[in-house]
Each structure stands twice: as structure tokens, then as C-alpha cells.
Amino acid sequence: MKELASIYQQIYVTCLDREFETVLINLLEYNSSKYVEIPIRRFLHKYITTREEFWCQFRKCSSFDDAFNLYYQYEKNKCELIDSLWDDLSFALDNGPLRCDLGIIMKDSMTF
């Protein structure tokens, strides 16, 4: 239980968008196996790294154009990370009942 509590804490500390945080928490409540937890932990680590790189580069921006371009790229990178998580989870859970549920959860949460 301690290990599972720490994944919830890690999700919270990562400061994800509230909607995506909810998706991950719901997914873990549905299936807390290592096949779900490990890709999520990897995703959270990459997400934090991406955010830190953004802020380091943002501090160096000398114009609004640079800042907006950097932010646009940052948002694209976050989308790519989510796509990568989706692929990792789909691969890990390819033959389970969670596959259909995961697709619904992700699709509903990422609809703009």
C-alpha cells in the first residue's frame, strides 16, 4: 500500500493538469498493477524534466515571440509525452479488458 500511496503523491507533486491527473488516478484505482504503474512513473519523470527544461529556457527568452514559440513547443512536447504514455499502456495491456476501458478514459479526458 505504501508503494501505491507514493504513486498518488508523485502524481500530485508533478502538478499535472487537473483533468489528466484525474485520468491517471482513475486508471490506477481501476488497475494498480505494475503494468500500469511503471509507465505512469516513467511518464511523470519525463513530464517533470520537460517542465524544468521549459522554465530554464523561458528565463532566457528575450522577446515575447521567443516566449510564445517556446510555450507552444512545450505544449506540443506534453502532448507527445501523453501519446507515449498511451502507447506504453496500450502495449503493456494489449490483451486485457482494461484496453477498451483505457481507450474510453483517455479519449474522454483528452477531448478539447
Tell me what you see in this structure.
The chain has one domain. The protein is elongated, with a radius of gyration of 15 Å. 11% of the residues are buried. Helices cover 82% and strands 0% of the residues. With 112 residues, the protein is an all-alpha fold. The protein has five helices and no strands.
- The tally of structural domains comes to 1
List the secondary-structure elements in sequence, H or E: HHHHH
Largest sheet: none
Helix content range: over 70%
How does the helix and strand content classify structurally?
mainly alpha
Total beta-strand segments: 0
Q: What would you report as the Rg, rounded to the nearest angstrom? A: 15 Å
What average pLDDT do the residues reach? 85
Which oligomeric state applies? single chain
Question: What fraction strand?
Answer: under 5%
What is the overall silhouette? elongated
Unreliable stretches: none
Distance between the termini: 35 Å
Question: Can you lay out the helices and strands and say which pair or pack?
Answer:
Layout (H helix, E strand, L loop, with lengths): L1 H13 L3 H13 L3 H25 L5 H29 L5 H12 L3
Helix pairs in contact: 1-3, 2-5, 3-4
Which key features would you list for this structure?
82% helix, 5 helices, mainly alpha, single chain, 112 residues
